Amino acid sequence: MAEGLALAATDFDEKVLKSDIPVLVDFWAEWCGPCKAIGPSVEQIATEYDGKARVYKVDVDAHADLASQYGVMSIPALLVFKGGKVVDQMVGAGPKQAIAGLLDRAL
């Protein structure tokens, strides 16, 4: 995983809720096969949308409180935040185009 994408719960408000551009948050875990399968797509999207949107990954084992706060029951769970609110989401692994589509709708 690209270290730059990892997000600590302490930074969540500042980097996600107060962001002036849409933010895709990938809730994942080290032991989750589908999470690892979409990892490269999420990292590519982070690069491709640089400047237009932000992308972060939240480890649900390390930040269970954050996952629970946003109702994450299954992973991977991809949530798009805009203006401090969840505006779109996808649960489960999907193709890169579907993940990018979440951000496209928020832009």
SSE blueprint:
Layout: H1 12-17, E1 23-28, H2 33-48, E2 54-59, H3 64-69, E3 77-82, E4 85-91, H4 96-106
Parallel strand pairs: 1-2
Antiparallel strand pairs: 1-3, 3-4
* Helix and strand composition category: alpha+beta
Spans of at least 5 consecutive residues whose pLDDT stays below 50 are none
Total number of β-strand segments? 4
- Looking across the biggest beta sheet, what order are the strands in? 2-1-3-4
Helix count?
A: 4
Beta-strand percent range: 15-25%
The overall pLDDT average reads 95
Largest sheet: 4 strands, mixed
What's the helical proportion of residues?
Answer: 25-40%
Order of helices and strands: HEHEHEEH
**Radius of gyration from the CA trace?**
12 Å
Distance between the termini: 25 Å
Question: In brief, what are we looking at here?
Answer:
It contains four helices and four strands, in the order αβαβαββα. It is of the alpha+beta class.
Report what the structure shows.
By secondary structure, the chain is of the alpha+beta class. Helices cover 36% and strands 23% of the residues. A 4-stranded mixed beta sheet has the order 2-1-3-4. The longest helix is centred in the middle third of the chain and has 16 residues, at 33-48. It is globular and about 30 Å long.
